[in-house]
Q: What sequence folds into this?
């Protein structure tokens, strides 16, 4: 079974920074894209940033220039560096990965449990 475990959330003041990390564990062949999504209270889940196994990135317009996604393919981890945080960034942040469990299989989507990020003074 594949597990994604996030860490690094917390409370930060506006303008501050946080770094989220997510580690994939279990038995699998490879991981394609990895990414971060967020869900604020009463709102739909939205994409924050994604990164392919080759390092191509995609960001939501609302975080461009402030957030940076990165990954370590050897360690099966993905990170999100969040700078210049705003109150509207407050949400549960969830890690996502497209995992090829067995060679030649189609990838399956996995989600972490989420980590709370609160931006408030």
A:
């Amino acid at each position: 079974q594949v597990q994604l475990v996030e860490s690094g959330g917390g409370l930060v003041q506006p303008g501050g920074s946080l770094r989220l990390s997510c580690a994939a564990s279990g038995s699998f062949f490879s991981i394609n894209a990895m990414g971060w999504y967020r869900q604020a209270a009463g709102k739909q889940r939205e994409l924050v940033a994604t990164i392919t196994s080759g390092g191509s990135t995609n960001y939501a317009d609302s975080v461009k220039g402030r957030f940076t996604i990165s990954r370590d393919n050897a360690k099966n981890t993905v990170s999100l560096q969040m700078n210049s945080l705003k109150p509207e960034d407050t949400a549960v942040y969830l890690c996502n990965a497209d995992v090829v469990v067995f060679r030649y299989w189609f990838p399956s989507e996995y989600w972490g449990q989420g980590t709370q990020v609160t931006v408030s003074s």
Q: What stands out?
A: The chain has a mean pLDDT of 97. Residues 23 and 75 are 8 Å apart (CA to CA). DSSP finds no helices and eleven strands in the chain.
